[in-house]
Each structure stands twice: as C-alpha cells, then as structure tokens.
Amino acid sequence: MGSERSAAGRAAWGVGGVALIVLGGVLIWIIQTGGFGQLPEDLGPMGSLVVRSVTFVFIGGGAWCLVRAGKQRA
Fold it and tell me: Could you list the residue ranges that cross the membrane (predicted)?
C-alpha cells in the first residue's frame, strides 16, 4: 500500500496548479481593466457573481493542485 507518487506526477500537479493560479490572476486583471466591456444591466450582478466564482475556482483549484503536488504519500 506504500505507493509513492513519481517525480513526474508531482511535477505535473505542480505545473497544473501554477497554471490555474496564473489563469485566475489573468481573469482578475481582465476584470480590473474592464476587458469584458459593459454587461447589460439585467446581467450585471449575475455576470459579476459568475466571473468571481470562476476566479475562485481557478485560484482554489490551483492551490489544491499545489498542495497535492507537495504531499508525500505514505
């Protein structure tokens, strides 16, 4: 039962985690610079909620991948 994660597997999790965090940062940058343009008024609050949720998933998922990359299997 002592299967160890290979170095390549750990590197893949790490690269995936960094990529997700970078995508989340890019999404935040696009939002801050107004890259999405103006949303229709009836979609404004909902669009903002969706974009913030996606950003949270990117950054949270990236952090989870980084933790998984660093975790030693017993």
Answer: 12-31, 43-67
